[in-house]
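Researcher: I've been going back and forth with a colleague about how KIB1-4 beta-propeller domain-containing protein might be arranged in three dimensions. Neither of us has a model we trust, so I'd like an independent prediction. The organism is Saponaria officinalis, in case that matters for your notes. Sequence below.
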Amino acid sequence: MSQRKVSWSNLPEELLSPIAHRLESRLDILHFRAVCKEWRNSVSLSLLSNKNILSTVLPHKLTTTNPPLLRRGAYRRREEFPENLINDSLILSASSIFLIKPTFNNAELSPWLITVEEMNSGKFVVRKPLSRSTVRKMPEYFPKMLDLSDFDVEEMGRVYSLRYDVEPYLLFEEQHKVLLLGDFDCKIRVSIDDYTAVVLYDSGVLAAINLKNAVEKEADLNRRKFDDIVMFEGTIYTIDRHGRLFLMDNSGDKLKMVAVVDEVLHSGMERKCRIFELCGELYLVRNCLVSKPSLTRKRMGVRVYKLNREKNTWDELDSIGDDRILFVIPGCCFFARATDFPGWKGNLIVLDDRLSFPCHSHTPLLGHDWEYFEFIAVREAEKKMSLEIFHFEECVFEPVETNPDYSIVFWPPPKWISANTRSLERLKSEEMAQNENTKGKIVAESGGLEKMFGNQSPIIIDIDSFPDIIPEASENVSAQETFQGVTVCAKLVPVLDKIWKKYGNVIQGHAVSSNSLLTWALESLAKMVMILQTNTSESLSDSQAAFLRTTLKDLRHFHVQLDWLVPCLDTVLVPENS
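Model: Here is an independent structure prediction for KIB1-4 beta-propeller domain-containing protein. You can compare it with whatever you and your colleague have in mind.
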């Protein structure tokens, strides 16, 4: 006798309603309602009230102010700890990286990759691109109302962070990582008491915090320091600084490490690893010296491996795929489709040049030379984006700032967002006419942005700060030429030629030994001249002025000869204190 097939849309309401009530995050409820009309009608939008957005149980305030390991890290001794934080509690919160794309068919428009954090239940804080730092303000052209029903929105990655309760914008540690390990036993409702937070501290120490009572369990390290942790098939895996893979056993009084891959990939402190899961496979990303037949000498680069589960070894990959882009950022790693990023090719890795790889010795790891490390510190202090693109095949790093095809994805927000936005009055009338609308809307109000799922449950996005806007460029600068032995954007070569003919070799005696950084210096110099040629003090935008000031400091730092340029800058730049 054949079984009778029942359509999912025909499930009875007495079954759908209990299922929906077990969903505790707004995103899950919205996904549930989006399945079909019958499911949508079975769940009222009022169910969204008092629901968290990203996580069913976060944000969460730890119940004790002083778990034993929570004072390890930047402040080793209690007397070094800031006085206002000595008795402070910690907040565990969730962040998400969203890829926002226009729904209308235009292959030339770049998407927007945005990071938001839910620090208070139902409220978002916008972060710098792919980071955990806060933004200052939105550009003037950003719309007062943003309707997400006009866009395709995809969650790319999820990050958990510890912050201080009294200073919520201050991270507990800059590079720490948190994973949530659940013990649910098929309960009707899941609470924070069912979770353990597994924390990897900046120092490489691993511990587990029971979120029911904030009791912390230390790992049996055996003198090991760990680089990364990941959830894989319901179990926590960790990688040490030598590339050895371990499975974490949380059943005893201490966390025990069970070796999975005992192969040592490297020694020393300077080479670091990250691990991540994709489609049932475990991958390892390693920052190290790379040697290829096409290279005349070894250089700093990135290697990628996949776990061989039969042999318990790491198999090195020659490519991550021409159709994929790998993002290695603080807190998580994820793959993206190259087709989602116009002007990009595949087989690329996006990294934070200071924070993508852990740093037990508190020394910057990723980069090319010590001059580069010092430059990164200067640039970070000036709050520029610190993202880099690693070209896997060529083994070359390229700062995101130097290529508009890259930078436009991160900041500032794309102009098409404003063009797609509907008026506030129209949205209000639509909400009154259609309670079945299940997609989000973001509303810019005094004090922040509101994201509404229907008209009953606002989600506030507080805007506090944002990274310096990168000068816009409308031209594609992907073509390259060699100038003075350095590879630069082809369209900037005529500008550099004129500089050299009139003022000579302005980089003679420079303090840069990295080719990629020298490329940045030459291209930035040409961009400065182009801005000065096409603007006066009245027409110069704030973002252009900021670019001129910060780039001038950077080039002076590398001993580029700029005496000929300074008088031109003085005529267009208004003193910062005025």
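Researcher: What would you highlight for our discussion?
Model: I'd start with this: The longest strand covers residues 151-164. After that, consider the following. The chain has a mean pLDDT of 71.
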